[in-house]
Amino acid sequence: MAVILYHKKLSDGFFLLKAEAHARVFPGQFYMLRAWGDCPVLSRPVSVYDADGDGVTFLYKVVGKGTRIISKLKPGDDITLQGPYGNGFFDVLGDASGSIAMVGGGVGIAPFYYTAKKLKIKYPKVSVDMYLGFSGTPLLLDAFGRVSDNLVTDVGGYITDKIAPEKYGQILTCGPQAMMRALYQKCKTAGVSEKLYVSLENRMACGIGTCLVCSCRTTDGNKKTCADGPVFKGEAVFSL
Question: Model confidence over 186-240: pLDDT tens digits?
Fold first, then answer.
């Protein structure tokens, strides 16, 4: 059980929530959030937006009963956090160098604030270009601007149209499947599909790899998104 330290509505359906937590968190990991008893049955997987010595912060969107319950909570209320779970972007990147692009759509922008912030600390010479797509009001542009060297946004269109994949040493993406698949195809056409890493947002139940709800097909066979991912090489997921 954790205490909510901060909770703010950003725009229609989007919230930023910070809860007390002291675990070591790696960029790209997630928690399972719960603020109810038996119903809904499942906790909700939410990516880490930021983490510091006081707690962990989540950017989430209200999409169903569980997130609607969470959206009603106030600072001082309790929330159950299980995690952090999954691998992270650093687990698959190895040594980063040159320029890195981060491409997010909708609530898929969430992991890139913490990822960019930690990347700048670990690899000070690396430059980070951020590409963020929104269907409605853009979110947290000042914050993302502080941790990126170049921030590109799009509202209502296709953020993938604005990136030249061949410019980058690595490309990280999270968001709708259609957006990530389009980015993979663009990388493939440019001959750089091996540079793409994707963070999947599959439905989950346990978060630790026992229930198999989040299984996904890859070139290496079926994998558990929560335990083997959520970060995979783009080729492993979208070249099938």
Answer: 999 999 999 999 999 888 888 988 888 899 999 999 999 999 999 999 999 999 8
Neighbours of 157 (CB within 10 A): 11
Give me the domains of the chain, ranges plus CATH numbers: 2-85 (2.40.30.10), 89-238 (3.40.50.80)
pTM of the model: 0.95
